[in-house]
Design a protein that fits this description.
Layout (H helix, E strand, L loop, with lengths): L8 H6 L12 H14 L3 E7 L4 E7 L11 H7 L5 E8 L7 E3 L12 E7 L3 H9 L10
Antiparallel strand pairs: 1-2, 2-5, 3-4, 3-5
Length: 143
Amino acid sequence: SGFDTGDGRGRSLLGKEGFAVDRVICPEESLTRYIGKLVQYPEALQVREFAGGRACLASVRARGGAPVVGMRIADMRASAPDVAMRVVAIYRRFPEEPDRFIACDGATRIEAGDEVFVLAAREQIPRVLAALHQRGGLPQHPV
């Protein structure tokens, strides 16, 4: 560890008897990876990787005219049974109420303007994002 003062105090401070630090995080590297994901998935508002990068949690603003906007979550799953994905949360804006997360089950409809949080295999993320954000029939512009 770079925190060692030469007399061993740094190691004990970070060890189990001190702050119990078991992992050092490099903010620059973390930010670089995060920006890279946003460039890779331009429709996404956020992208987080899990399970060594095999799964991603992405949030995307649902756009009017996109294939699954207006669909119930259950119908969305049925329309693409080969895509392993789960809608884990929806943050909705309300005109005369505070914006908030709404209950999310098979009967919930995805509305234009919703921020939809989806967990899926990394290789499925482009397809999921396009279904929620890309207007039907329009080509996707590479970044």
